[in-house]
Amino acid sequence: MPQVYKINPDGSTIPMTKVYCADETRELQDLLAKNLDLLPGDQINPEEPRRWVLVQREMGVPDPGSGKERWAIDFVLLDQDAIPTFVECKRFADTRARREVVGQMLEYAANGHHYWNRDQFQQLAEQSARARGMTLEEALQQAQVDINDEADVKDFFARAEENLRQGHIRLIFFLEEAPFELKSIVDFLNKQMERSEVLLVEARQYELEGTRVVVPTLFGYTEEARRVKRAAPVAAGRRAWDEESFFETIAVELGEDAFRTIHEFYNYMQSHGLQIIWGRGKRYGTLRIVAPEVSPTPILSIWTNGLLWINFAPLDKDERMVDFRGALARIVEHYMNWDLPDDYATRYISVPLETWLPRAQEFADLVVRLVEEFKERPAP
User: Fold this and answer.
1) Is the separation of the CB atoms in 118 and 163 below 8 Å?
2) What CA–CA distance (Å, rounded) separates 256 from 60?
3) CA nearest 72: which of 45, 108, 36?
4) pLDDT at position 179, please?
5) CB 74 within 8 A of CB 88
6) Looking at residue 375, what is its pLDDT?
7) What is the pLDDT of residue 337?
8) What are 87's strand-pairing partners?
């Protein structure tokens, strides 16, 4: 079993104590509910890390005979490609973490598609978002789902239903530590199943001097298994945008002046070390701007319909991000004189083309200067 150590200021180390969960609900389910990123999306897909939209916790599964709810899945999630993801949490000491839980999950997956549809997914996801103090649109945006209006939202959940019908789903076992038998079953199933992913996440927990840490590690996704999955079709709907397609659309939809200014904005950001990620929206393309020294998620997004999004909501993971978010808000309000709502910190604020385009270079200068300032600050 790998050991985790605390490093003292003098360079010496102290081993942390391995902790086994006594309460599955509190120490596994509640922990995951508050931290969905403990499902390591970057390990599942290093090229495009998975992000999660919560549909429902403890989601009922009907009995195919009676139609009444007989089981419950610990978590039903969707990733940014609208792939349904079922998660079951189990303690290491729970003997059901051996074989029974696999049959239970396969039964959930086999029966769920007879009863769930796009409207149920959307309604439940909206309720879950509201319980976390955000709108459904903001929850989707936080998961980097490309949406710009209600039609995009409906299309996303329609694709989720189609993926469910096709068996393009993901089953995840979330345990503090997995027994060997379960690892063997997961490894076998994941290599054999073309459309469905069967994964295991070990969330090992350690404690020292009252501080507990959790180390999530993915098991079951070998390169051989990845090759099997690549050939399986996923519900159509997303489009891979790039520089050429994005700016061709800008030129046609917004005109030559907008094309020239946005292209200059894009080049300026790149020349100062900011990174560009292209969106995969069905109808609208996005140019996403990332300041890697500040946050792995985009701080700005420009859409092919001309909207500029300022992405405040994801800047909440540590004190440094929160400081950056506050400084960015001051630029927007006090230098650009663009109004912000009181709850801007939890929002993705959109600025119309006619507002931001005439001052694009000024805004770019201020953002670059702010990023340069934060580069000098030590990472947390």
Assistant:
1) no
2) 53
3) 108
4) 81
5) yes
6) 85
7) 96
8) 75, 172
Q: Is 226 helix (H, G, I), strand (E, B) or coil?
A: helix
Per the listing, tokens 């916790």 go with: 57
Q: What is the spatial distance between Cα 86 and Cα 259, in angstroms, rounded to a whole number?
A: 43
pLDDT score of 72? 83
Q: What secondary structure, in 3-state letters, does 292-333 show?
A: CCCCCCCCEEEECCCCEEEECCCCCCCHHHHHHHHHHHHHHH
- Walking along the chain (380 residues) 10 residues at a time, the average pLDDT comes out as 82 90 84 92 86 93 67 91 92 67 78 81 95 90 83 89 88 88 83 83 90 87 56 60 95 95 97 92 87 92 93 89 96 96 88 96 97 79
Q: Give the CB-side neighbour count of residue 224, counting CA atoms within 13 A.
A: 8
Contact yes or no for 144/51 (Cβ under 8 A): yes
Given this model, what pLDDT does residue 190 score? 79
pTM, two decimal places? 0.73
Q: How many CB atoms lie within 10 A of CB 23?
A: 10
Retrieve residue 223's tokens.
């390169």
Where are the alpha helices (H) located in the chain, listed in sequence order? 24, 30-34, 41-44, 100-112, 118-131, 136-142, 150-166, 180-192, 223-230, 243-254, 256-271, 319-330, 353-356, 360-375
Are the C-beta atoms of residues 121 and 86 closer than 8 Å to each other?
no
Angle between helices 150-166 and 118-131 (to 10 degrees): 120
Q: How far apart are CA 214 and CA 2, in angstroms?
A: 13
In this structure, how many other beta carbons lie within 10 angstroms of the beta carbon of residue 138?
16
Predicted confidence at residue 348, as pLDDT, reads 86
Task: Tell me which residue has tokens 């927007």.
Answer: 332
- Contacting residues for 306 by C-beta, under 8 A, at least 6 apart: 253, 254, 258, 352, 353, 357
Provide the pLDDT for residue 3. 80
Please report, as a single letter, which amino acid is at residue 222: T
| Model pLDDT, residue 67 | 60
